[in-house]
């Protein structure tokens, strides 16, 4: 497989959905789906009645049909109603969980639909996943990749954050069941991923070392065994799978060299991301200093040595500010195989963004009222996070202040060691008293935003609480958001993925 010159970024939660990835791949470039929170996205699409029937179509192709049927029976609402069915009401009133998954621990919320809620909540992800949750994650990743690969012979990838560890193994497996062509991963040091892809392709058990805060010398692992999952279904066998290529998302040549040394032969390329890219950014090297606006300051130490990258012997793509023909030519001159582009694709018609939210942002952009702020505090991960300013979203101080702090999706929770050696979970965006009670520092909670709920809200799947409160969205974009302006006018606040590709790759 020859990798194309242009990679579409794996943005947000569902922004890089299957429709966008399929369109980009069908046009000869690398279409990428975001692998974050796909289990929640799956059950919320089903909860809305699966408009268009695409999710159910993909579920019919899942190689473990019993799993697909069970998930469909549990979460699909044919009427797409926000009201709970009588069955859901009885379970909620009796405190019973929807489905067969383990009951949530004292720190968790989930497994049921609370009175007045629009969507069912899953138990929060944790270090030990039940077989039911592993299958759900595998199914959700399969569905997204399967749909992205239909109708063309192009290249489809999936993007994960290394910091979101708990779902990684079954998610990778599900994407591989659907024949994903390449896996991209950043937000951490993904030296373990190439070996995991090797093992999963052979149907072998795999383990990851968990990053547990306050662990000292104690080591924590998570295991995933495909054979054990399939053993529960007589007549089915774990299939042999094609190993996808692996691209590590990095921000320095030093890290690239370290990864090649730790995973010889396992890394097929790099996406080198500059700090002006959207979403999470690598923190500046050295002590943090803030600008007069309160943004992290990046300096010469954060600049990538292109000459070193060109000598490593593997292809690389440059990301962050490369959404133009001129910048693409410059990247090629530096030795890059091509470029990755996120922001320009994130606001096109094929992206997963809620259409009304997308149009509002584009209108603000044309008026010059859509600045992007690199917020050092917004993300629970402590990584800087690009926040696109838009009234009515969490970028608005009043909207942020009005949101009750709670954690009921939990993808960005961190594991920590309890005094008895067991694993606990905390998030600096959860209620402050809860976070401090679990050993967190109160200063870590200042300015933190619930990215999990906000990013799901961006794609029209916002949760409605029992009291009628709806989770607000929070947009992200790169500093080069002006790259969108050539595609829109006050009379036409829309453009397509094809327009972006043509602008970058077609000679002027």
Give a quick summary of the entry.
The protein has 508 residues and is an alpha/beta fold.
Overview of this protein structure:
- The protein has 508 residues and is α/β, with parallel strands linked by helices.
- The chain has a single domain, classed as Aldolase class I (TIM Barrel, Alpha-Beta Barrel).
- 31% of the residues lie in helices and 13% in strands.
- It is built from 18 helices and 15 strands.
- The protein has helices at residues 18-26, 38-47, 54-60, 65-75, 86-94, 131-148, 168-177, 193-201, 226-231, 253-262, 306-310, 325-333, 343-346, 355-367, 397-402, 432-437, 451-457, 497-505, and strands at 6-8, 30-34, 155-161, 182-186, 206-209, 212-213, 221-224, 245-250, 269-273, 316-319, 338-341, 372-375, 385-388, 414-417, 423-426.
- The strands form four sheets. An eight-stranded parallel sheet has the order 1-11-10-9-8-4-3-2.
- Helix 12 links the parallel strand 10 and strand 11.
- Helix 3 (54-60) crosses helix 6 (131-148) and helix 6 crosses helix 7.
- The protein is globular.
């Amino acid at each position: 497989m020859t990798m194309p010159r242009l990679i579409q970024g794996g943005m947000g939660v569902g922004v890089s959905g299957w429709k966008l990835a399929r369109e980009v791949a069908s046009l000869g470039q690398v279409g990428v789906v975001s692998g974050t929170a796909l289990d929640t996205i799956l059950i919320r699409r089903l909860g809305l009645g699966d408009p268009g029937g695409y999710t159910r179509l993909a579920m019919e192709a899942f190689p473990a049909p019993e799993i697909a049927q069970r998930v469909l029976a549990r979460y699909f609402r044919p009427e797409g109603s926000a009201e709970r069915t009588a069955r859901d009401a009885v379970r909620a009133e009796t405190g019973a969980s929807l489905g067969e998954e383990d009951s949530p621990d004292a720190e968790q919320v989930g497994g049921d639909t609370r009175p007045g809620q629009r969507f069912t909540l899953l138990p929060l992800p944790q270090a030990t996943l039940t077989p039911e949750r592993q299958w759900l994650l595998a199914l959700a990743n399969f569905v997204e990749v399967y749909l992205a690969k239909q109708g063309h012979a192009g290249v489809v990838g999936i993007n994960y954050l290394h910091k979101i560890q708990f779902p990684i193994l079954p998610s990778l497996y599900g994407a591989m069941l659907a024949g994903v062509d390449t896996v991209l991963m950043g937000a951490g040091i993904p030296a373990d991923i190439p070996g995991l892809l090797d093992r999963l392709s052979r149907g072998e058990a795999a383990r990851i070392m968990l990053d547990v805060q306050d662990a000292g010398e104690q080591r924590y692992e998570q295991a995933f065994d495909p054979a054990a999952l399939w053993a529960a279904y007589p007549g089915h066998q774990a299939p042999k799978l094609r190993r996808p290529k692996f691209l590590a998302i990095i921000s320095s040549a030093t890290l690239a060299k370290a990864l090649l040394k730790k995973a010889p032969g396992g890394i097929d390329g790099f996406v080198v991301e500059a700090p002006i890219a959207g979403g999470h950014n690598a923190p500046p090297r050295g002590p943090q200093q803030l600008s007069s606006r309160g943004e992290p300051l990046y300096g010469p130490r954060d600049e990538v040595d292109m000459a070193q990258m060109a000598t490593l012997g593997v292809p690389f793509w440059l990301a962050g500010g490369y959404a133009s023909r001129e910048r693409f030519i410059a990247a090629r001159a530096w030795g890059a195989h091509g470029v990755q582009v996120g922001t320009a694709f994130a606001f096109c018609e094929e992206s997963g963004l809620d259409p009304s939210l997308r149009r509002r942002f584009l209108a603000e952009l044309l008026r010059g009222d859509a600045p992007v702020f690199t917020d050092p505090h917004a993300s629970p991960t402590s990584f800087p996070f690009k926040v696109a300013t838009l009234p009515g979203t969490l970028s608005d101080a009043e909207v942020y202040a009005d949101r009750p702090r709670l954690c009921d999706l939990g993808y960005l929770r961190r594991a920590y060691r309890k005094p008895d050696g067991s694993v606990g979970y905390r998030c600096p965006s959860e209620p402050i008293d809860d976070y401090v009670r679990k050993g967190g520092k109160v200063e870590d909670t200042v300015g933190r935003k619930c990215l999990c709920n906000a990013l799901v809200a961006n794609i029209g799947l916002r949760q409605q609480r029992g009291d009628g409160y709806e989770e607000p969205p929070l947009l992200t974009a790169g500093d080069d958001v002006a790259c969108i302006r050539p595609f829109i006018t006050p009379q036409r606040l829309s453009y397509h993925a094809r327009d972006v590709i043509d602008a970058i790759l077609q000679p002027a």
